[in-house]
Amino acid sequence: MTGKTEFYNGNTACAEGALAAGCRFFAGYPITPSTEIAERMASRLPKVGGTFVQMEDELASMAAIVGGSWAGARSMTATSGPGFSLMMENIGYAAITETPCVVVNVQRGGPSTGQPTMAAQGDMMQVRYGSHGDYSIIALSPSSVQEMFDLTVKAFNLADRFRTPVFLMADETIGHMREKILLRENVEIIPRRELKEGELPCEPDENGIPGFGTFGNGHNIHITGLTHNEKGYPATDSAELHEAMVRRQVDKIEKHRLELTDVDIVNPEAEIVFISYGAPTRTVRQLLADEPDTYGHLNLRIVWPFPDHCLDEFKNAKAFIVPEMNLGQIAKEVRQYTNVKIITAPKLGGALHTVEELKKAAAAAETATRPVTEVRL
Amino acid sequence: MRHEIRFSGLGGQGIITAAVILGRAAALYADKHVVQTQSYGPEARGGASASAVIISDEPIHYPKVTDPETFVIMSQAAYDKYGCKAGNTALMLVDPGYVTSRPCCVCLEVPATAEAKAQLGKPVFANVIMLGALMEATGVIDYDSLERAVLDSVPKGTEEANKKALAIGREIVRKQL
Amino acid sequence: MTLEDWYRQDRLPHIYCAGCGNGTVLNATLRAVEALGYDINETTFVSGIGCSSRAGGYTAADSLHTTHGRALAFATGVKLVKPKQHVIVFTGDGDCSAIGGNHFIHACRRNIDLTVICMNNNIYGMTGGQGSPCTPKGSITTTTPYGMQEQPFDLCRLAEAAGANYVARWTSFHVKELTEAIRVGLETPGLSFIEVLAQCPTAYGNKNKLRQPTQMIEMFKKNAVKKAKADRNAAEGIPLEPGQFVVGEFVRRANPPLGVVKE
User: Fold this and answer.
1) The pTM is what?
2) DSSP type of residue B117
3) Quick check: A180 and B64 CB within 8 A?
C-alpha cells in the first residue's frame, strides 16, 4: 500500500479515511470531542467535489445523511454522547429503510453532558439497542490513529455491502491523540449494489439484502419508515409481513457474523484472557508486551455483531477479564455466550486503565468464585 | 527505549504546538514511534495547557505518560501541577521568567520568552526556543528532523525566525552543559 | 407525461377521508409539476409524518417518507447531494411547525432550493384530532377540550422572517391560485414555502361546528382576504375581522440560495 505518511490525531485520520473511501457528503453538528472530524470535512470536502453542511442539530444531521445516501453519496456524520442520543430516532429510520451511512461516535463521559473532554465507552449498548424496536447494526472500535483511518474505510464498505448504518465507536483518547499514520491511497471500495431492472426495491437477494434504488436513477421508488412490503409500500397491519421484514433485516447482519468478524487473538492457550476494544486494548497490549506468555487477548475491531464464536478459541480459559471504560457493557454480552467466569474491570472518569490495574484484575481472576465479579480499580 | 516528555504552561504559549512539532519530527523525519496527547479544556488562552509526547524505538502500546523523563515547564501553575512530581532522575527545562520554583532533579533555566522578545522581537518564538533547548539537552531528536518539522508547521514568512529560535535554544543549553 | 402518470396508480385509492383537503393539494402540486414538464426521474418528493406526509407516496417519482418533523432535514441531504433534483417537501402544520419547527426555520435560513408545501388543517388529523401550533384560539380539539388557549403560528410570516425566497398562502378552495403559487415556487431558486389551509372535517370540523366539508370550504371562501385587499384595508386602518386570514403571495425575492446547480 502506498500513501503519504502523516502525524495526525485520530479525528483527522477518521476524516481522511472517509475521504479515501469516497465519502462525499457530511452533515454534522459541533460537539466535543468529535468536532475535528467536522472541521476537517468542512475544509476538505469542497476540494474533492463533495458537500459539507452544518445542520441545526444532530436529529437533522442524521436525517440529512440518510437523504444524502439516497441521493447516491457515501454519507457520514460524527458526534459524541449527547448528539448520539439525538440521532437515535433517525438511526432507527436508517435501519428500517436499510440506508447505508456511517456514524462516528467519539465517546465521552455520560450520561447527559457528563465529561465533554474525557474518554469513555459508555455508548456501546446504546449503539446496539438505542433506537426503538428490533434491528441490528454493525459497530467498529478503533484503538489507534491508523485504525481510525482504516476502520472508517471499512465502515463505508460494510454500510454499502449490508445496507445498514455502520458505527465507528471511537473514544476521546483515540480521537485526540496523535500518531504516525499512513494515508493509504487507492483503498478498496466495495460499492453498494444498485437495484436491477425488474427487481423490487425491498426484495432481498440471496444474502437477504435488497438492491439500492438510488434516487434520480429512474427507479422511481417509495421509501418509508413504516413497515413495508417488497415494493416498499406501507403494509402495517400484517403481523406476518412485519415479522418477516424485521427478521430479515436483523438476519442480514447477524447471520453474517463470520464475515463480520474482525479480531486479534493472542495466546489462545492462556488461562487468563483479556477481552477488549478501543483504547483499553492499548493497555492490554502493553501488559502482554511486558509479560509475553502469561495472558491471552481477544481484541475486537468489530464489536457488533458480537463475535461470540471467538470465545471458543480460548480452550483453556478460566477467566475472561473485560476492561472497559463503562460499567461492564460488553462484559454482559460475553456472559451470554460462556460459562467461563468473567471479571469486569470498569474504569470511569476518562483515564485509561493502567497496566497495574489490569494486573490487579488478573489477580482477582485467580480468586474469584462467582460467575461475574467486578474488580474496583 | 521509551522517552516521555511533558510540556506544560499557559494557553497561548504554544505548548501544544511545541509538542506536536516534536512528535512530528520524531515520527515523520526520525522514523520513531510517537504518541502525542494533550489535555483538553474550555480554556484557550491564559488557562493551563499541557501536552505529552512519547518517543520510542518500539511500538507504543500504552499511550499516556506515567513518569516523564523530561519536563518543559513554562508557568508556575504548570510547575505546581506537574513539575513538583518530577522524579529525582528527571530533567527539567523551565522558563525562569514564569517559573520561580526549582525541583530536586536536574533543572536547566531556558529564558525562552525573554530571549524571544530580545532577539526575535516577539514572545511567540519561545516555544521553538524551548524545542531547540530540549533537543540539545536530551538528544531525543536530531537537529535536522526537528528543523524540518518546525518548518512545515510554522506560518509562512516566519521560517527564518523559527530557525534562529531553534539555534537560540540550542545555544542556551550548550552554555550551561 | 400526463397528470395521471404522476400518480402511483397501484397505491390508489389514498387513505384520506372523504372530504379531506389534502387530495386537492396533492393534485394541485402534480398539476404544477406536470405543467412545468419536469422529468419524473429528476423529481423527488420528501415528507414527514401525518396525513399530509402520505402524499409523497402517491406520486410516481422517487419519494422518501421520513420521520415526524424531519422531512426538511432529509430533503436537505437529498438536494445537496443531487442539486439537479427538483425536491418537493410535503408537510403538515404539526409536522412542520411543532416537532419540525427548528428544521423549518433553518431550512428557510439556508434558503435551500426546496419547494415546501404545508397542508395546514389546524390539527393533528392522523392521530385523531389533537391541537397543533396552528390550531386557532378557542378551537376545540381532543387536547384542548376547553378551547385552544395558545396563540397560533403564522407560518408564512415565520418563513419570511427566517429567509425563504418565496412565500404564499392559499386554501384548498383556491385551486387555481394554489397551483400557480406552487408553479412559481418550483421555479423560484431558494426555499419556497406554500401554506395551504386544507379542511379536515373528520378531526377538526367535527368538533368545531364545521362537520360538512362544504362548510369548511365555505368558511375558507368567506374568511380568506386577498393580500391586496388586506394591504389596502391595513393602510386605512381596517383590521382583519375575527376568523379572517390573508391569502396570496407574500414574498418573492432572489436572495442567494443553497443547493442550486452552478451553471
Assistant:
1) 0.97
2) I
3) no
